[in-house]
Specification:
mainly alpha; Arc Repressor Mutant, subunit A; 2 domains; disordered C terminus
């Protein structure tokens, strides 16, 4: 697998090969992380951004193409460019460092104002979710509240697994956009992201 160039490697990833995806990580994750770290100067956030890029790559793998040189480097580093821009847009203010990714621990350390904001965001997201079309809302609720897998949801709704993935991804994308438009502190945004990110695509 490691001997494959990016084009056949991408084709394997598009056939849902975990080994091919692991090879992609081995090939690019370190250089991508170093590039992002050089831009933002914060190791933990650079690691988070690098992970987000590869998660996004996996979710969008069917639409990704290599560049004219047959490489995925342009796609990955192009994604990093926009992630870095987004990072600076979100942290234009002071943000306390998160000591844990456990939502319950994070909530216990928040101020009263942050707790109130969290509740407001949860209400906002619930309202946004309820306004979505059934094709997006129902799969996400089944995944988040009933903890069903993609396969179980597909069988229950009698649609393809890919359709379930696409609909959940679209719903999550809308919710995350809503969080950004609310201009919440990064710690709250991450908390909501963690609570909502239960689409079981892996």
């Amino acid at each position: 697998m490691k001997q494959l160039s990016d084009q056949p490697l991408l084709e394997c990833i598009q056939r849902d090969s975990p080994k091919a995806f692991a090879t992609l990580l081995d090939r690019y994750s370190q250089s991508l992380f170093e590039h992002i770290y050089q831009k933002i100067g914060h190791r933990e956030n650079a690691e988070d951004i690098t992970q987000e890029i590869f998660l996004s790559f996996w979710k969008n793998r069917m639409t990704i193409r290599v560049d004219v040189n047959g490489s995925l480097r342009s796609y990955l580093f192009g994604s990093a460019k926009y992630k870095v821009i987004d990072y600076y847009a979100q942290v234009a203010y002071e943000v306390p460092q998160m000591q844990t990714l456990d939502p319950m621990t994070e909530m216990s350390n928040e101020s009263a104002d942050d707790t109130l904001l969290t509740k407001e965001l949860q209400c906002l997201l619930e309202k946004e979710l309820n306004a979505m079309p059934d094709r997006m809302r129902i799969p996400l609720k089944l995944s988040r509240e009933e903890e069903l897998t993609i396969r179980e949801i597909a069988q229950l709704l009698q649609i393809s697994e890919q359709s379930v993935k696409n609909n959940i991804s679209s719903a999550l994308y809308k919710l995350r956009l809503r969080v950004k438009s609310y201009n919440a502190p990064l710690s709250i945004s991450l908390l909501v992201h963690l609570c909502c990110h239960n689409d079981k695509l892996f």
